[in-house]
Amino acid sequence: MRRLRFALLLGLALVPISGWGAVNWSISNVPSYFGGDFHSSVHTGIFYDPTTLQAQTNDWWASLTIPYISITNLPNGAAYNRGVVVGSSKGTPTHNASGLGDILLSAHYRVYRGVGFWPSMEPYAQIKFGTASSTEGLGTGLTDYEIGSNFSENLGWIRPFFSVGYDFVGRDKAYPLRNILTYSVGTTVSVFVPGETWQSNFLTLLYSGSQSELNGYPSIGTVLLAWNHDFTPAGTGFHFYLAKGVTSSSPGFGVGFGFQVAL
Fold first, then answer.
1. d(CA 197, CA 232)
2. Which of 27, 97, 163, 166 could form a disulfide with 184, with the two C-beta atoms 3.0–4.6 Å apart?
3. So what's the pLDDT on residue 235?
């Protein structure tokens, strides 16, 4: 499960399609908790608290995320990497760790504005810097790169979307990981509330999956249901989501709640 991908896809689903417009800035903090055995014999808990600064127009947006991570019952020799635990082995002793996570940088640009039933096309690039401690298992200490494209269809009150990408995963002797294909599909629905003068409530259902970074391990697959509520037309509001993994390598469950403030 890729928490960064969730943020990117939710952003794609909620960005309106119109002209270039001015640059809009926002800052968000959406703490979350995920738990599961991640295809090992122990249950690991992950508290992930990302603070994200985002710049956006109607045709491009970029974001910088600085997270804090706290992990309980992490198998020795394993590491957290963008939502999943890699390198774990059954029956190993465990430890707890906390500190700075991997800093994330992403950028999207809409190269084609959808017309009729032709979807909009939005290539993206993202970098995960290896800033988390590999000694503590908060990260691999390696840098990952991903490129891909999002596609979306604006049908008024409903917006279906899907995404496909390829992740160039950092690797060394400690973590002999492999590059992976990533993919997501979902839809966002605007919920009409009588008396409102702008759309303020959005429900999003999506499935996010990828190949496993570890040879011989099951693929990653997570279903997420999110609710976004805006207090202002500029986008100040809160986000809430529930997640459920559908493979043994995925988190068993997850929950997140936080706020975004338009600057």
1. 10
2. 163
3. 84
Amino acid identity, position 111: V
Residue with structure tokens 């707890």? 96
> What token pair was written down for 46?
């992950």
Decide the pairing of beta strands 60-75 and 94-100.
antiparallel
Backbone angles phi, psi at 4, to 5 degrees: -60, -40
Token pair belonging to 189: 């629905």
pLDDT per residue as tens digits for the range 81-117? 877 888 765 557 889 999 999 999 999 999 988 777 7
Copy the structure tokens of residue 24.
């809009």
Residue pair 12/108 in contact by the 8 Å Cβ criterion: yes
Spell 102-121 as b/e; 16+ CB within 10 A means b.
bbbebebebeebbeeeebbe
- What secondary structure does DSSP assign to 126-147, as a single string? EEE---S-TTTTS--S--EEEE
Give which of 185, 184, 148, 149 is closest to 167, Cα–Cα: 148
88's CB contacts (< 8 A; 6+ apart) are: 38, 39, 40, 75, 77, 78
What are the residues whose beta carbons fall under 8 Å from the beta carbon of 187, sequence distance 6 or more? 13, 158, 159, 160, 161, 204, 205, 206
Answering whether pTM is above 0.90, one says no
Cα separation, 192 vs 139, whole angstroms? 42
pLDDT at 10: 52
